[in-house]
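Researcher: Hi, I'm a grad student and pretty new to this. My advisor asked me to get structures for two proteins we've been looking at. I'm not sure of the right format, so I'll just paste the first sequence and hope you can take it from there.
Model: That works fine. Here's the first sequence with its C-alpha coordinates right after it:
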Amino acid sequence: MEQNQNQSASLKGKGIGKLIGWLKFSVIIALLPIALNALSLGITGQLESFSQLVAHGELLLVATAISAMAMGELFRSGSSLKIFKVMAGGAAIVIIMLSLSYFVDILAAYLSGFGIDEQQINIIVQMSFWSLGFSVFSGGCCILLSEY
Protein backbone atom coordinates (compact mmCIF):
# COMPACT_ATOMS: atom_id res chain seq x y z
CA MET A 1 0.00 0.00 0.00
CA GLU A 2 2.78 2.40 0.96
CA GLN A 3 4.66 1.56 -2.24
CA ASN A 4 1.58 2.52 -4.33
CA GLN A 5 1.36 5.88 -2.53
CA ASN A 6 5.07 6.54 -3.12
CA GLN A 7 4.68 5.61 -6.78
CA SER A 8 1.63 7.89 -7.11
CA ALA A 9 3.48 10.79 -5.47
CA SER A 10 6.43 10.19 -7.78
CA LEU A 11 4.18 10.30 -10.86
CA LYS A 12 2.54 13.51 -9.64
CA GLY A 13 5.94 15.08 -9.05
CA LYS A 14 7.12 14.01 -12.51
CA GLY A 15 3.93 15.37 -14.06
CA ILE A 16 4.27 18.77 -12.38
CA GLY A 17 7.96 18.90 -13.31
CA LYS A 18 7.13 18.06 -16.91
CA LEU A 19 4.39 20.72 -16.95
CA ILE A 20 6.76 23.39 -15.62
CA GLY A 21 9.41 22.38 -18.17
CA TRP A 22 6.83 22.54 -20.95
CA LEU A 23 5.68 25.98 -19.83
CA LYS A 24 9.28 27.24 -19.76
CA PHE A 25 10.57 25.72 -22.96
CA SER A 26 7.51 25.47 -25.18
CA VAL A 27 5.16 28.25 -24.18
CA ILE A 28 7.69 30.94 -23.30
CA ILE A 29 9.95 30.20 -26.25
CA ALA A 30 6.92 30.20 -28.58
CA LEU A 31 6.09 33.71 -27.35
CA LEU A 32 9.68 34.93 -27.65
CA PRO A 33 9.42 36.27 -31.25
CA ILE A 34 6.52 38.52 -30.22
CA ALA A 35 8.47 39.74 -27.18
CA LEU A 36 11.54 40.44 -29.31
CA ASN A 37 9.41 42.31 -31.83
CA ALA A 38 8.00 44.42 -28.98
CA LEU A 39 11.51 45.14 -27.76
CA SER A 40 12.69 46.09 -31.23
CA LEU A 41 9.71 48.35 -31.93
CA GLY A 42 9.96 49.86 -28.46
CA ILE A 43 13.63 50.72 -28.88
CA THR A 44 13.00 52.41 -32.22
CA GLY A 45 9.94 54.23 -30.87
CA GLN A 46 7.58 52.59 -33.36
CA LEU A 47 5.49 50.65 -30.84
CA GLU A 48 2.19 52.51 -30.57
CA SER A 49 0.09 49.84 -28.84
CA PHE A 50 0.30 46.22 -27.80
CA SER A 51 -2.37 45.27 -30.31
CA GLN A 52 0.07 46.31 -33.04
CA LEU A 53 2.15 43.23 -32.12
CA VAL A 54 -0.62 40.67 -32.55
CA ALA A 55 -3.11 42.34 -34.90
CA HIS A 56 -2.18 40.00 -37.75
CA GLY A 57 -3.05 36.86 -35.78
CA GLU A 58 0.45 35.96 -34.62
CA LEU A 59 -0.84 34.60 -31.31
CA LEU A 60 -3.13 32.25 -33.21
CA LEU A 61 -0.08 30.61 -34.76
CA VAL A 62 1.58 30.40 -31.35
CA ALA A 63 -1.56 28.78 -29.93
CA THR A 64 -1.53 26.26 -32.76
CA ALA A 65 2.11 25.37 -32.14
CA ILE A 66 1.59 25.04 -28.38
CA SER A 67 -1.42 22.75 -28.85
CA ALA A 68 0.36 20.63 -31.46
CA MET A 69 3.45 20.13 -29.26
CA ALA A 70 1.36 19.13 -26.26
CA MET A 71 -0.82 16.82 -28.34
CA GLY A 72 2.31 15.10 -29.65
CA GLU A 73 3.41 14.38 -26.08
CA LEU A 74 -0.02 13.01 -25.24
CA PHE A 75 -0.14 10.65 -28.23
CA ARG A 76 3.22 9.13 -27.27
CA SER A 77 1.95 8.24 -23.78
CA GLY A 78 0.37 5.05 -22.47
CA SER A 79 -3.23 3.97 -22.67
CA SER A 80 -4.36 4.64 -19.09
CA LEU A 81 -6.89 7.41 -18.41
CA LYS A 82 -7.92 7.09 -22.04
CA ILE A 83 -11.16 9.11 -21.81
CA PHE A 84 -9.36 12.09 -20.27
CA LYS A 85 -6.62 11.87 -22.89
CA VAL A 86 -9.23 11.81 -25.66
CA MET A 87 -10.92 14.88 -24.16
CA ALA A 88 -7.66 16.83 -23.76
CA GLY A 89 -6.38 15.78 -27.21
CA GLY A 90 -9.76 16.58 -28.75
CA ALA A 91 -9.72 20.04 -27.18
CA ALA A 92 -6.23 20.60 -28.60
CA ILE A 93 -7.42 19.54 -32.07
CA VAL A 94 -10.41 21.92 -31.88
CA ILE A 95 -8.12 24.77 -30.81
CA ILE A 96 -5.75 24.01 -33.70
CA MET A 97 -8.59 23.96 -36.24
CA LEU A 98 -10.26 27.14 -34.96
CA SER A 99 -7.00 29.06 -34.56
CA LEU A 100 -5.79 28.17 -38.03
CA SER A 101 -9.09 28.92 -39.71
CA TYR A 102 -9.34 32.29 -37.93
CA PHE A 103 -5.73 33.09 -38.88
CA VAL A 104 -6.47 32.29 -42.53
CA ASP A 105 -9.53 34.59 -42.41
CA ILE A 106 -7.44 37.41 -40.94
CA LEU A 107 -4.71 36.89 -43.51
CA ALA A 108 -7.24 36.87 -46.34
CA ALA A 109 -8.77 40.12 -45.06
CA TYR A 110 -5.37 41.81 -44.95
CA LEU A 111 -4.31 40.49 -48.36
CA SER A 112 -7.58 41.38 -50.06
CA GLY A 113 -7.14 45.04 -49.19
CA PHE A 114 -10.46 45.35 -47.38
CA GLY A 115 -8.75 47.16 -44.56
CA ILE A 116 -9.14 46.29 -40.95
CA ASP A 117 -10.52 48.95 -38.61
CA GLU A 118 -9.73 49.46 -34.92
CA GLN A 119 -12.79 47.53 -33.73
CA GLN A 120 -11.83 44.51 -35.84
CA ILE A 121 -8.26 44.68 -34.54
CA ASN A 122 -9.62 44.63 -30.98
CA ILE A 123 -11.66 41.53 -31.82
CA ILE A 124 -8.60 39.87 -33.37
CA VAL A 125 -6.54 40.63 -30.25
CA GLN A 126 -9.28 39.33 -27.92
CA MET A 127 -9.79 36.14 -29.93
CA SER A 128 -6.03 35.63 -30.11
CA PHE A 129 -5.68 35.83 -26.33
CA TRP A 130 -8.62 33.48 -25.80
CA SER A 131 -7.08 31.02 -28.22
CA LEU A 132 -3.70 31.26 -26.51
CA GLY A 133 -5.27 30.80 -23.07
CA PHE A 134 -7.26 27.75 -24.14
CA SER A 135 -4.23 26.24 -25.87
CA VAL A 136 -2.07 26.66 -22.75
CA PHE A 137 -4.81 25.14 -20.58
CA SER A 138 -5.58 22.17 -22.84
CA GLY A 139 -1.87 21.75 -23.60
CA GLY A 140 -1.10 21.68 -19.89
CA CYS A 141 -3.74 18.99 -19.45
CA CYS A 142 -2.16 17.01 -22.29
CA ILE A 143 1.29 17.30 -20.71
CA LEU A 144 0.04 16.23 -17.28
CA LEU A 145 -1.89 13.31 -18.72
CA SER A 146 1.08 12.19 -20.80
CA GLU A 147 2.73 10.96 -17.60
CA TYR A 148 0.05 8.26 -17.17
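Researcher: Oh nice, that was easy. Here's the second one.
Model: And its structure:
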Amino acid sequence: MAGEKINKKKCLGQMEIMAEIKLAKKEERQADFSNKTLADLSIVFDKIKFGLNLENAFVLGPVFFSEIVSNGDFNLKNIQINGSLYLARSEIKGNLILEGAKINGTVNLVGAKIDKNLLGRGMINTGFLSLAKTEIDGDVILENAEVYSANYSGLAIRGDLFLDSSEIKGTLNLSKISVDGILDLEGATIGKDLIISEARIKKEKTDTTRAKIGGRKIS
Protein backbone atom coordinates (compact mmCIF):
# COMPACT_ATOMS: atom_id res chain seq x y z
CA MET A 1 0.00 0.00 0.00
CA ALA A 2 3.03 2.24 -0.27
CA GLY A 3 2.28 5.46 -2.04
CA GLU A 4 -1.49 5.28 -1.43
CA LYS A 5 -3.04 8.44 0.02
CA ILE A 6 -5.46 7.40 2.73
CA ASN A 7 -7.98 9.81 4.22
CA LYS A 8 -8.03 8.62 7.84
CA LYS A 9 -11.09 10.76 8.59
CA LYS A 10 -13.05 8.41 6.35
CA CYS A 11 -11.47 5.27 7.82
CA LEU A 12 -14.04 2.91 9.34
CA GLY A 13 -13.37 1.60 12.83
CA GLN A 14 -14.57 -1.65 14.41
CA MET A 15 -17.79 -0.14 15.80
CA GLU A 16 -18.81 1.22 12.40
CA ILE A 17 -17.97 -2.10 10.76
CA MET A 18 -20.08 -4.10 13.20
CA ALA A 19 -22.96 -1.60 12.82
CA GLU A 20 -22.96 -2.17 9.04
CA ILE A 21 -22.92 -5.96 9.49
CA LYS A 22 -25.85 -5.73 11.92
CA LEU A 23 -27.80 -3.45 9.56
CA ALA A 24 -27.11 -5.75 6.60
CA LYS A 25 -28.59 -8.69 8.51
CA LYS A 26 -31.70 -6.66 9.30
CA GLU A 27 -32.09 -5.53 5.68
CA GLU A 28 -31.32 -9.04 4.35
CA ARG A 29 -28.41 -7.96 2.17
CA GLN A 30 -24.66 -8.39 1.91
CA ALA A 31 -22.59 -6.26 4.29
CA ASP A 32 -20.95 -3.75 1.96
CA PHE A 33 -17.49 -2.27 2.50
CA SER A 34 -16.56 -2.03 -1.18
CA ASN A 35 -14.22 0.87 -2.02
CA LYS A 36 -14.01 1.75 1.69
CA THR A 37 -10.97 2.21 3.96
CA LEU A 38 -10.99 0.15 7.16
CA ALA A 39 -8.62 0.42 10.12
CA ASP A 40 -8.63 -3.37 10.51
CA LEU A 41 -11.22 -6.11 10.67
CA SER A 42 -11.68 -8.75 13.36
CA ILE A 43 -14.73 -11.02 13.74
CA VAL A 44 -14.83 -14.12 15.96
CA PHE A 45 -17.65 -16.63 16.59
CA ASP A 46 -20.26 -14.81 14.53
CA LYS A 47 -22.69 -15.47 11.69
CA ILE A 48 -22.64 -13.18 8.66
CA LYS A 49 -26.01 -14.02 7.17
CA PHE A 50 -25.72 -12.72 3.61
CA GLY A 51 -21.95 -12.57 3.10
CA LEU A 52 -19.46 -9.74 2.90
CA ASN A 53 -18.36 -7.40 0.11
CA LEU A 54 -14.85 -5.96 0.47
CA GLU A 55 -14.16 -5.47 -3.23
CA ASN A 56 -11.55 -2.71 -3.84
CA ALA A 57 -11.33 -2.02 -0.10
CA PHE A 58 -8.21 -0.81 1.73
CA VAL A 59 -7.48 -2.31 5.15
CA LEU A 60 -4.75 -0.60 7.14
CA GLY A 61 -4.17 -3.59 9.42
CA PRO A 62 -4.83 -7.34 9.45
CA VAL A 63 -8.10 -9.08 8.60
CA PHE A 64 -9.02 -11.76 11.15
CA PHE A 65 -12.01 -14.11 10.95
CA SER A 66 -12.12 -17.07 13.32
CA GLU A 67 -14.87 -19.68 13.44
CA ILE A 68 -17.39 -17.50 11.62
CA VAL A 69 -20.18 -18.74 9.34
CA SER A 70 -21.23 -16.87 6.21
CA ASN A 71 -24.33 -17.84 4.25
CA GLY A 72 -23.14 -15.89 1.21
CA ASP A 73 -20.02 -15.04 -0.76
CA PHE A 74 -16.95 -13.43 0.78
CA ASN A 75 -15.89 -11.00 -1.95
CA LEU A 76 -12.34 -9.71 -1.40
CA LYS A 77 -11.64 -9.00 -5.06
CA ASN A 78 -8.86 -6.42 -5.50
CA ILE A 79 -8.67 -5.82 -1.75
CA GLN A 80 -5.43 -4.39 -0.32
CA ILE A 81 -4.55 -5.55 3.19
CA ASN A 82 -1.60 -4.12 5.11
CA GLY A 83 -1.27 -7.25 7.21
CA SER A 84 -2.26 -10.90 7.23
CA LEU A 85 -5.55 -12.53 6.25
CA TYR A 86 -6.80 -15.17 8.70
CA LEU A 87 -9.89 -17.24 7.91
CA ALA A 88 -9.14 -20.49 9.71
CA ARG A 89 -11.88 -22.84 10.91
CA SER A 90 -14.57 -20.71 9.28
CA GLU A 91 -17.36 -21.77 6.93
CA ILE A 92 -18.31 -19.85 3.80
CA LYS A 93 -21.52 -21.15 2.22
CA GLY A 94 -20.67 -19.51 -1.08
CA ASN A 95 -17.52 -18.42 -2.94
CA LEU A 96 -14.35 -16.99 -1.43
CA ILE A 97 -13.20 -14.43 -3.99
CA LEU A 98 -9.58 -13.24 -3.75
CA GLU A 99 -8.96 -12.35 -7.40
CA GLY A 100 -6.42 -9.54 -7.67
CA ALA A 101 -6.05 -9.26 -3.88
CA LYS A 102 -2.80 -7.78 -2.55
CA ILE A 103 -2.02 -8.96 0.97
CA ASN A 104 1.07 -7.71 2.79
CA GLY A 105 1.23 -10.75 5.04
CA THR A 106 0.41 -14.43 5.31
CA VAL A 107 -2.88 -16.00 4.23
CA ASN A 108 -4.13 -18.71 6.59
CA LEU A 109 -7.25 -20.71 5.73
CA VAL A 110 -6.37 -23.81 7.77
CA GLY A 111 -9.44 -25.93 8.44
CA ALA A 112 -11.83 -23.64 6.55
CA LYS A 113 -14.90 -24.99 4.74
CA ILE A 114 -15.94 -23.38 1.44
CA ASP A 115 -19.15 -24.65 -0.12
CA LYS A 116 -18.46 -23.30 -3.61
CA ASN A 117 -15.16 -22.06 -5.13
CA LEU A 118 -11.98 -20.37 -4.01
CA LEU A 119 -11.22 -17.85 -6.75
CA GLY A 120 -7.74 -16.37 -6.34
CA ARG A 121 -6.55 -15.66 -9.85
CA GLY A 122 -3.73 -13.08 -9.76
CA MET A 123 -3.68 -12.65 -5.97
CA ILE A 124 -0.39 -11.67 -4.31
CA ASN A 125 0.72 -12.23 -0.72
CA THR A 126 3.94 -12.14 1.30
CA GLY A 127 4.64 -15.03 3.63
CA PHE A 128 3.00 -18.45 3.35
CA LEU A 129 -0.38 -19.25 1.82
CA SER A 130 -2.02 -22.15 3.66
CA LEU A 131 -5.02 -24.15 2.53
CA ALA A 132 -4.03 -27.08 4.72
CA LYS A 133 -6.95 -29.18 5.98
CA THR A 134 -9.47 -27.09 4.05
CA GLU A 135 -12.64 -28.57 2.54
CA ILE A 136 -13.67 -26.96 -0.74
CA ASP A 137 -16.68 -28.29 -2.61
CA GLY A 138 -15.85 -26.53 -5.89
CA ASP A 139 -12.67 -25.44 -7.66
CA VAL A 140 -9.53 -23.72 -6.39
CA ILE A 141 -8.24 -21.26 -8.98
CA LEU A 142 -4.82 -19.75 -8.15
CA GLU A 143 -3.72 -19.12 -11.72
CA ASN A 144 -1.07 -16.36 -11.94
CA ALA A 145 -1.01 -15.98 -8.14
CA GLU A 146 2.27 -14.96 -6.45
CA VAL A 147 3.47 -16.12 -3.02
CA TYR A 148 6.57 -14.23 -1.84
CA SER A 149 8.84 -14.78 1.13
CA ALA A 150 8.83 -12.08 3.78
CA ASN A 151 10.92 -10.72 6.63
CA TYR A 152 9.12 -9.28 9.65
CA SER A 153 11.31 -7.72 12.36
CA GLY A 154 14.16 -10.06 11.51
CA LEU A 155 11.91 -13.14 11.30
CA ALA A 156 12.07 -14.77 7.87
CA ILE A 157 8.84 -16.37 6.61
CA ARG A 158 9.27 -18.43 3.48
CA GLY A 159 6.66 -18.11 0.75
CA ASP A 160 5.35 -21.67 0.88
CA LEU A 161 2.02 -22.91 -0.49
CA PHE A 162 0.48 -25.52 1.80
CA LEU A 163 -2.29 -27.77 0.51
CA ASP A 164 -1.51 -30.75 2.72
CA SER A 165 -4.53 -32.77 3.88
CA SER A 166 -6.88 -30.53 1.90
CA GLU A 167 -9.99 -31.88 0.17
CA ILE A 168 -10.89 -30.15 -3.09
CA LYS A 169 -13.84 -31.71 -4.90
CA GLY A 170 -13.30 -29.79 -8.13
CA THR A 171 -10.18 -28.74 -10.06
CA LEU A 172 -7.00 -27.30 -8.53
CA ASN A 173 -5.61 -24.78 -11.01
CA LEU A 174 -2.07 -23.62 -10.19
CA SER A 175 -1.07 -22.72 -13.74
CA LYS A 176 1.51 -19.91 -13.98
CA ILE A 177 1.65 -19.56 -10.19
CA SER A 178 4.90 -18.24 -8.67
CA VAL A 179 5.92 -19.60 -5.24
CA ASP A 180 9.13 -18.55 -3.47
CA GLY A 181 9.11 -21.64 -1.26
CA ILE A 182 7.67 -25.14 -1.58
CA LEU A 183 4.35 -26.55 -2.79
CA ASP A 184 3.12 -29.11 -0.25
CA LEU A 185 0.44 -31.48 -1.59
CA GLU A 186 0.98 -34.31 0.89
CA GLY A 187 -2.29 -36.04 1.65
CA ALA A 188 -4.33 -33.70 -0.56
CA THR A 189 -7.42 -35.03 -2.34
CA ILE A 190 -8.35 -33.41 -5.66
CA GLY A 191 -11.63 -34.60 -7.16
CA LYS A 192 -10.98 -33.45 -10.72
CA ASP A 193 -7.87 -32.09 -12.48
CA LEU A 194 -4.58 -30.81 -11.08
CA ILE A 195 -3.24 -28.09 -13.39
CA ILE A 196 0.35 -27.01 -12.75
CA SER A 197 1.42 -25.98 -16.23
CA GLU A 198 4.06 -23.21 -16.21
CA ALA A 199 4.06 -23.15 -12.39
CA ARG A 200 7.23 -21.68 -10.88
CA ILE A 201 8.06 -23.39 -7.57
CA LYS A 202 11.50 -22.19 -6.52
CA LYS A 203 12.63 -24.35 -3.59
CA GLU A 204 12.27 -27.93 -4.74
CA LYS A 205 10.56 -30.18 -7.24
CA THR A 206 6.91 -30.69 -6.39
CA ASP A 207 5.95 -34.23 -5.38
CA THR A 208 2.43 -34.89 -6.63
CA THR A 209 2.56 -38.63 -5.90
CA ARG A 210 1.39 -37.99 -2.34
CA ALA A 211 -1.84 -36.41 -3.57
CA LYS A 212 -4.93 -38.31 -4.69
CA ILE A 213 -6.02 -36.89 -8.05
CA GLY A 214 -9.40 -37.94 -9.46
CA GLY A 215 -8.87 -36.38 -12.89
CA ARG A 216 -5.86 -35.50 -15.00
CA LYS A 217 -2.54 -34.02 -13.99
CA ILE A 218 -1.79 -31.26 -16.50
CA SER A 219 1.80 -30.00 -16.31
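Researcher: Is there anything I should tell my advisor about the second?
Model: You could mention this: The chain is about 5% helix and 35% strand.
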